[in-house]
Amino acid sequence: MENADNKLTLKLLIDKRSNKVLFGEASKDVVDFIFSLLALPLGAITNLLRKDAMVGSIGKVYHSLSKLNETYILSKEKVSSLVNPPLASTSNPQTNFLLPPSTNQDTKNRRIYLCLNPNYWNCGYVSEVPGVSCPSRHGLMNTEAKIVNPVGSDGKGYVKGVVTYSLMDDLTVVPMSTISSIALLNKFQIKDLGSLEEKTVDIGFEESAQSQPD
Prior knowledge:
By secondary structure, this protein is an alpha+beta fold. The chain has helices at residues 28-36, 42-48, 58-66, 76-83, 178-187, 205-210, and strands at residues 8-15, 20-26, 112-114, 132-133, 140-141, 143-145, 165-167, 173-175, 196-203.
């Protein structure tokens, strides 16, 4: 569920004796956000991680390019597309406010252009830069097209909102049901239901940034 403060909410089931979160009850919006992380380009993931948390040489490649002097750079725009890329693909941009603005591509500000030569209607090519020559040599691509987002509650995101989902601490997502909830309680060896506590927490960009290690 998304609240008025532009945050998502997540219900947690907590074992008070061990002070451990057993699992979370997640809505469609929360699950859509988690699955949308799979659409992040590699440069965006590297940008989100702290340098010390990067494994292997990807972090060194990223910092080498980001710190390279302008004398050696052919195009700032090309470098920016690698070290600060937009979210490449998502069907529900409304849940991407949890990501930094650099990785959150706003389709409202995105522009694409067509060549609409009346002799060659709809050639099939588009460009994000106006004035580019059409590959079919039909003219310049100067006619702006409008980007239409999917409509309808089931047309946005990745999962349907007809059920609630269980979210585990390792980000495993499964549909929630009475039977699956009982199975999870048995898995965690919960004998006393009185030790369980339900807590609702907010999920937002500020919360996720504060949770990162220094």
